[in-house]
Design goal:
Radius of gyration of chain B: 14 Å
Low-confidence stretches of chain A: none
CATH topology of chain B: Rossmann fold
Largest sheet of chain B: 4 strands, parallel
Oligomer: heterodimer
Low-confidence stretches of chain B: none
Shape of chain B: globular
CATH superfamily of chain B: ATPase, V1 complex, subunit F
Number of helices of chain A: 16
Largest interface: A-B, 15 and 15 residues
Order of helices and strands of chain B: HEHEHEHHEH
Number of domains of chain B: 1
Strand content of chain A: 15-25%
Number of strands of chain B: 4
Number of strands of chain A: 26
Shape of chain A: globular
Mean pLDDT of chain A: 91
Number of helices of chain B: 6
CATH class of chain B: Alpha Beta
CATH architecture of chain B: 3-Layer(aba) Sandwich
Radius of gyration of chain A: 28 Å
């Protein structure tokens, strides 16, 4: 192993000499504290190393030792329900050992070595297996069956396979490779986090990831295996949207990366998730969640790594055939970590001081998402949907991180400070946002929700766009200048905004809306638009159309529980009755 | 074409609008709010571009009259009734002037 010594310390960056045998991205141990670092640059025998821990007290002359291996993650049973830091150190167990603050140089394996798991073999001795084939399963909790797979790059014949209780490092199977060499396999795999895990084939996403958030599912859906960005100024609700997605998204596994954000946001997750129940399985949401926490006060270099830690864990579960959603909050903080490191490396700065490779790094992260056919003879399909929050300073998305992100992602949920100020949540601006998956997903919605779905969506969007045009006129010459038809359009748009798009994340019923209910709500509002127009044509007064008593019920339809959707029929017939009364009175 | 250009309607108390019949207008007597509204809608639907309405009738159904303020194909014009003008028409002119130029230049009326 290369053993060098420190010649320079600059914050979290150190330069060491005598490192000629080290390789790029090797993990090193720095000083007598054995701090974890990673090589970022090699010039002759000088290595620039980013250290994932606090470097105060370090000085030139202290030893640096290369481990000869890249920064790798431990993948195996025990990941679910855990909380890790940016370089996969288990925060809960560190706390037991070292208290509230992470002590320097602490070494703890990511996965608990003492915990015993019940391994059930799937493969039999004598079976020929290839990389990605399932050897056996471990029921990690009531929700997640952890599939132990043959690691990438290995294939052969199963010689022995052991049933029963094992620790993660125990050899559970012996594989004889083609060259006759025997490999003992444990439940634990290691994978370098900066390299994407291999898959057989990437597929084009064809089904949505249902999130239960009306503005997202109806107007700007994300595909399962899609990528989305949520840019928004401070206080516009990025984190709440991310939390909502983490809670309700229709995915098997959630990886939540809290990256450079406030510590209490992570606390919220830790306190809330165990109490919440998944609407489909009835189990606690924590049972499908992996948390990566690198809050704003934790070392900046580890923040850079946290994104890769998250996506590698996501890929590992994807390879098992699960649909995984990864949320990163926020990628701007991550880009700032890149900038900080780049500055210390004395690299030539690009736009706004960000390194020139900013957009390729962002692309590397998002490109690891997608729907794939996994390795293995089974042809399992898995998907990673990646959702990144972006916090552009001042809410101005012309800055480099937002722009680099927008070039890659296909869904853009633009949060607006103005909507947040008007207490419209989620403050996703319907005129600004877009989803490029709409065409791919329209067939799915037609088949699985309603043939009318796409038409209704388009109509509601048209109403909202008309509203913004009419608002210009109203600002100039006042509401009186609008024809009754336009006034009704304004009223319908208000209804779409307030009764449909506005969604209370903290209301027990309103926090999640199934597609069926979304469809019924939208249909009800647009039905009112058609019937109202018919009444106006028949001579009814605008004030009577706007003041129909049934509108109160339309407004409250969002609070109808999922199991009582029958009430929608009732409201619809009430609407029909009140409209025909108006038409009859209209006198035409 | 000539026939179309000449078409006019009148709505209001019977005594006031009968005279319009003499010049070929379609006169519809109306004495309640619903009758006024329905008469206006019917005349408009029949494509009559100019409808005279007595001030008293217009006051009865303000919303129905307001509907045609923004309608391009129909103009509703208030006229004094048999008891003379009560200022409704003048007030409308004044309101429109204020809206158009932002100042009440017709103040001398008061």
């Amino acid at each position: 192993m290369a053993q060098g010594k420190i010649v320079k310390v600059a914050g979290s960056l150190i330069v060491a000499e005598g490192m000629s045998s080290a390789r790029m991205f090797d993990v090193v141990r720095v000083s007598r504290h054995r701090l974890i670092g990673e090589i970022l640059e090699l010039r002759g025998d000088r290595a620039s190393i980013q250290v994932y821990e606090e470097t105060s007290g370090l000085g030139p002359g202290e030893p640096v030792e290369s481990t000869g291996a890249p920064l790798s993650l431990e993948l195996g049973p025990g990941l679910i329900e855990s909380i890790f830091d940016g370089i996969q150190r288990p925060l809960d167990r560190i706390r037991e050992q070292a208290g509230d603050r992470i002590a320097r140089g602490i070494e703890l394996p990511a996965l608990d070595r003492e915990r015993v798991w019940d391994f059930t073999p799937v493969a039999q001795p004598g079976d020929a297996v290839e990389a990605g084939d399932v050897l056996g399963t471990v029921q990690e909790n009531a929700l997640i069956e952890h599939r132990i797979m043959v690691p990438p790059g290995l294939s052969g014949t199963v010689r022995t396979i052991a049933r029963g209780a094992h620790k993660v490092t125990d050899v559970i199977a012996v594989l004889e490779a083609g060259d006759g060499q025997e490999h003992g396999l444990s439940m634990l795999q290691r994978w370098p986090m900066r390299i994407g895990r291999p898959y057989r084939e990437k597929l084009s996403p064809q089904m949505p990831m249902v999130t239960g958030q009306r503005v997202i599912d109806t107007f700007f859906p994300i595909a399962s295996g899609g990528v989305a960005a949520i840019p928004g100024p401070f206080g516009s609700g990025k984190t709440v949207v991310q939390h909502q997605l983490a809670k309700w998204a229709d995915a098997d596994i959630i990886v939540y990366v809290g990256c450079g954000e406030r510590g209490n946001e992570m606390t919220d997750v830790l306190q809330e998730f165990p109490r919440l129940h998944d609407p489909k399985t009835g189990q606690s949401l924590m049972k499908r969640t992996v948390l990566i926490a690198n809050t704003s006060d934790m070392p900046v270099a580890a923040r850079e790594a946290s994104i890769y830690t998250g996506i590698t864990i996501a890929e590992y579960f994807r390879d098992m055939g699960y649909r995984v959603a990864i949320m990163a909050d926020s990628t701007s903080r991550w880009a700032e970590a890149l900038r900080e490191m780049s500055g210390r490396l004395e690299e030539m700065p690009g736009e706004e001081g960000y390194p020139a490779y900013l957009s390729s790094r962002i692309a590397e992260f998002y490109e690891r998402a997608g729907q794939v056919v996994c390795l293995g003879s089974e042809g399992r399909k898995g998907a990673i949907s990646a959702i990144g929050a972006v916090s552009p300073p001042g809410g101005d998305i012309s800055e480099p991180v937002s722009q680099a992100t927008l070039r890659i992602v296909k869904v853009f949920w633009g949060l607006s400070a103005q909507l947040a100020y008007r207490r419209h949540f989620p403050a996703i601006d319907w005129l600004l946002s877009y989803s490029l998956y709409l065409d791919n997903l329209s067939d799915w919605f037609t088949d699985h929700v309603s043939p009318e779905w796409n038409a209704l969506r388009l109509k509601a969007m048209t109403v909202l766009q008309e509203e913004s045009e009419l608002e210009e006129i109203v600002r100039l010459v006042g509401m009186d200048a609008l024809s009754w038809k336009d006034r009704l359009t304004m009223e319908v748009a208000r209804s779409v905004r307030e009764d449909f798009l506005h969604q209370n994340a903290f209301d027990e019923v309103d926090t999640y809306t199934s597609l069926e209910k979304q469809y019924r709500m939208l249909r009800l509002i647009l039905d009112y638009a058609d019937k109202g127009q018919a009444a106006l044509d028949a001579g009814a007064n605008l004030s009577d159309v706007i003041g129909m008593p049934v509108r109160e019920r339309i407004g409250r339809a969002k609070y109808i529980p999922e199991d009582s959707l029958i009430y929608f029929d009732e409201i619809e017939s009430e609407l029909a009755a009140q409209t025909s009364a108006l038409i009859n009175r209209g006198g035409l | 074409m000539a026939d179309k250009l000449l078409r006019m309607g009148a709505v209001g108390e019977e005594d006031a609008i009968l005279a319009f019949k003499a010049i070929g207008a379609v006169a519809v007597p109306a004495n309640t709010a619903d009758e006024v509204a329905s008469a206006l809608h019917r005349l408009s639907r029949d494509g009559i571009p100019i409808i005279f309405i007595t001030e008293a009738a217009a006051r009865m159904a303000p919303e129905a009259v307001a509907r045609y303020d923004q309608a391009m194909e129909t103009a509703v014009i208030p006229i004094p009734g048999i008891r003379g003008s009560d200022g409704y028409g003048a007030q409308r002119v004044r309101d429109n002037v204020i809206k158009a130029i932002g100042a009440d230049i017709l103040q001398y009326n008061n």
